[in-house]
Specification:
The protein is mainly α and 169 residues long. It is built from 6 helices and no strands. α2 (39-60) crosses α3 (68-97) and α3 packs antiparallel against α6 (136-162).
Length: 169
């Protein structure tokens, strides 16, 4: 009989894998100076795939059974680990390696607003607001929070789909 693994073991393993994959994927636009609006969709797909693989591994090694709670725990711990890894590396890159990233992003956002027909006054107002939340430290914290929110949403969905609870008689 196979030795059963714990949710923590699976979550740590897949959190590390997810963190490394997400870090590489999220460094690509920074290194290539891309401003792709579809990039967040890539992050969602990666998250869902990682949660699905993690819960599938746990379920397979647990005799085909997994409760919603176990799947949810795996997804949330994996999201936390991945969020910290991805956002700390991103912070180091933006803060110490290429400190012009935030300026380039702000300029691209302003250009997008101009293309949408916003007036210079509106752009100046919006820029003042976004400048307050676009420093590397706030981006680090918000990045981790957003990954956790994604884990909450996508992890719940994956756990609900993959659960297979043992029947109690």
């Amino acid at each position: 009989m196979e030795e059963q693994i714990t949710t923590g073991q699976v979550a740590k393993k897949w959190g590390l894998i997810y963190g490394l994959v997400a870090t590489v994927i999220n460094l690509i636009p920074l290194l290539l100076e891309l401003q792709a609006s579809w990039w967040p969709v890539v992050n969602i797909v990666i998250a869902v795939v990682m949660y699905a693989l993690a819960t599938k591994e746990f379920k397979t090694n647990n005799g085909g059974f997994m409760t919603f709670g176990e799947g949810f725990r795996i997804s949330m711990v994996a999201a936390l680990i991945a969020g910290v890894i991805r956002n700390v590396v991103n912070y180091v890159y933006v803060k110490f390696i290429d400190d012009t990233v935030m300026q380039r992003i702000q300029q691209a956002v302003e250009d997008s607003w101009r293309e949408q027909g916003m007036s210079e006054e509106q752009i100046e107002q919006m820029s003042g607001f976004s400048a307050g939340i676009s420093n590397p430290e706030i981006t680090l914290v918000l990045g981790i929070v957003f990954v956790l929110l994604g884990g909450l949403i996508w992890g719940s969905i994956v756990s609900a789909v993959n659960k297979n609870e043992a029947e109690d008689f």
